[in-house]
Design a protein that fits this description.
This protein has 125 residues and is of the alpha+beta class. It contains five helices and four strands; from the N terminus they run ααβααββαβ. Strands 1-4-2-3 form a four-stranded mixed sheet. It comes from Nocardia suismassiliense. This is ParB/Sulfiredoxin domain-containing protein.
Length: 125
Amino acid sequence: MIAVRWKDVPEAHDYPAAADYLELLAGPKIVSAVVDDLRAAPIVHKKAKDILRAARLELLPPENLHVRRDLIKIHNGKALSPILLVRGDFRTGAPMVIADGYHRVCAIHWADENIAIPAKLAAMP
């Protein structure tokens, strides 16, 4: 198993990045509430393969520029930032959203799909 180092909390710039992406999916009031919930959420640990399945996203190739950068960070022992997730709803068919960290999830999957990734998880209001 590959050793992956993680930061204790997401980086400050991860939250505005998540908000920027979420603004493509919801209005400002909802995005603000979700980002506030992400900031307050505890860290949970989920496997890369399960995150991709729940989000219904394709695994990006290791040649992708951002995935490659994260794979290099892993190889060099640099700590990665936890990811930010918004819970889906299987009752309505809404997939989970990776608000920030899609490339990190893909890099971890390439390193070992069973590595538990620290994440903050919020629900849609």
